[in-house]
Amino acid sequence: MAKLAHLLLFLLPFFSLFLIFIIVPVLYTLGLSFFNAPPAAKSLFTNYVGAAQYARAVTDSTFWQGYESMLYLTLLWVPIMLVASFLIALFLDSRRGKLGALGKVIVFLPYGVPTVIGTLMWGYMYTAGGPIYSFLAFLGLSHNLLAPNDIIYAMLNIIIWEWVGYNVVILLAGLNSIPNTLYDAARLDGASGWQITRRVKIPMLKKYFAFIIMLTVIGDQLLFNEPFTLSNLSSVPFGFTPNLYIYHVTYFLEEFNYASAIAFILIAISLVVAVIGVRYFWSEG
Amino acid sequence: MKKSISNTFTLVVVATLAIYFLLPIWWAIVASTKLYSVAFSGSPIWFNGPTLFNYIYAFTKSSLLLWLGNSLIEAGSAGAIGALVAAMAGFALGKYVFRGKRLLTLVVAIGLMIPSTAIAFPTFVLEQQLGLVNTYEGVIFPTAVSAFGTYFMTIYAQETIPKDVLDAARIDGASEWRVFTSIALRYFRPALVTIFIIIFAGTWNNYLLPLFVLRNAALYMLPQGLASVLINGSTFPNLQYAIQLSGTVVTILLMIGLFVSLEKYIEAGLGLGAVRG
Known about the structure:
The complex is a heterodimer. By secondary structure, chain A is mainly alpha-helical. Chain A has helices spanning 4-32, 52-59, 61-94, 98-108, 115-126, 131-138, 151-176, 180-188, 193-204, 206-221, 225-230, 242-251, 256-282. The radius of gyration of chain A is 23 Å and the shape is globular. Chain B is mostly helical. Chain B has two domains: 2-51, no CATH class; 55-275, MetI-like (MetI-like fold, Orthogonal Bundle), CATH 1.10.3720.10. Helix content of chain B is 78%, strand content 0%. In chain B, α4 (64-95) crosses α8 and α12 (222-232) runs antiparallel to α13 (237-261). The radius of gyration of chain B is 23 Å and the shape is globular. Chain B starts with a helix and ends with a helix.
């Protein structure tokens, strides 16, 4: 048994920061969400209203509009992301030479670019005279991706650019963890390259795909940097994503209690998705 | 014959990937050498009388350098503090036997599942009470806390630090703190780099928390500063363009340098994150 003094010495720094900056904020918001303080109130804990803020969120169409657009984005995003990262990972896994290593660095680089800056760059490239605009015009698709109706595709492209590399690295780790004996056995049975991919690689990577889907679904509802930055170049509705709406409610409506309730809903949904995902990931078979 | 076809195929695929993934970066570099007045006419992807005007203009006439400094200080401090406290906690969780260990491990696992963007607003509300709004600490402390860091360090301690070596030092009369600093930290070194980079990059890229917490332009971090120009500076398109493009290129080159030189450590972190969930 370790001595208490030693435990405190090593554990206290991390766990006190963890308590103050993760646990307390979550509980504090939960507390705030049960009040509705008038604008001039000294404390945000005035005027207890029970679950009224949650009732308001449930019927707030602007809030749900955020979930609606994110659901649509997720439906587009998940398949494209999975297929693209899987194909790139398969390719890079089969090329172990210098070119393959270079390919991995290239694909991963965008992950290191701050999302705000990535969005700014793509935003400039979408504007008239920029390369994407010119390229689309060259193809005869005189399309302005910054038009309000197309902004979701403008965002989709930015997010794929940012995250494919990260997912490729995860899938490469997965491919690496498949025992060679499985491949040998398949080859002995006369399986072709395509059959090995379908019968060995895809089933063995099932959990990695689930992990990526989980990250995508959570990341999706928390999207903020991209739509917020794009809103300077185009008209993005302030309820476009739930996090964007929280910012709006905080700074423009100045309703901290209501913002707290929405924030808590967001945390709760993220936690539920994560618990389901992690349980699946850690389960046997 | 077959081999050369396969090499050509590899080259074509890698080149295609490079065009898509490097295009914005290449575009930004080229565009940063053009004046705003000609930036959107002529070839969008090739130089046209390159000049360093934007860089000189932005670095002398705006807060760009200040924002860059703020970002380096905050990301650097968060990374250093975060990696150290994670190593300490990981050492205790991985190497000591004590009651309550399972509970603490569970707490860390829950922490892993709370996304930082979801608690940006709650953190801000709390920091208002603590007087941390508009301070470096208001960004450094929340971003330094990495549940993943502690989780990573715990596994790392279990798998790489031999118990005999620690016990030998104890028999020689070394205190626990000394055992940690002179032995454990040596084993932890690669893991410290991994966690430092992960926290550094997370803080460096963070936008939502600084947006809530830092309301004074002199304290802005780089992404926040660059984005704020778009909102406030539309009457000065030349300066706005100069700041955004030169700021973008400087940031990206810094990150590329860091990523390429430390790729091995980053992958170690991502790999473990994936394998262990």
